[in-house]
Amino acid sequence: MILPIVAYGDPVLKKKGANITKDYPKLDDLLENMFETMYNAMGVGLAAPQIGLPIRLFLVDTSPFAEDEDFTEAERNALKDFKRVFINAKILEEEGDEWAFNEGCLSIPDVREDVFRQPKVKVEYFDENFKKHTEVFDGLIARVIQHEYDHIEGVLFTDKLSSFKKRLIKGKLSNVSKGKINVDYRMRFPNQKKKR
Ligand code: NI
What we know:
The protein is α+β, with helices and mostly antiparallel strands. The chain has four helices and nine strands. Helix content is 27%, strand content 25%. The structure holds nickel (II) ion (NI). Nickel (II) ion binds at residues 105-107, 147, 151.
């Protein structure tokens, strides 16, 4: 089932997510619905707050990047096969010189900006079977994980921009929260005026 994606301005996107346990109700269905929702919106990541749930859960599938000629063949192969569920994730370490990448977010359609992040990240998380992992990721995979991880911490990529950039996109963000945008997937807008 495709779920509506919560748009910028909804307070759930600002909440720090809570850890969940193995017996979280209908977790399998939730994961299936979140994957379907993410693929339908052509996303490479989706975090639970984006469908209205303030819990520490996100998905990543970087395979769409595997078509991008800007990457080396080795990078594209890694991106092609990277599909993962992250539950109760904790970033243990971030390393290296920050690099810029033009990021977007399914909750903020029409806005893309360069965001600086460190290239290497060490993460502790549980997979969909509640098996614990500690892994190091780098490059674009690390970046998608960092972006989604921010979501479960209540942080959006627009929070990381300079105050000058924030001022420039203020009007656009306000339009997103009101639903004054063209978007081809289901969304829920916090400040949309009800139609009579
Ligand atoms: Ni996002």
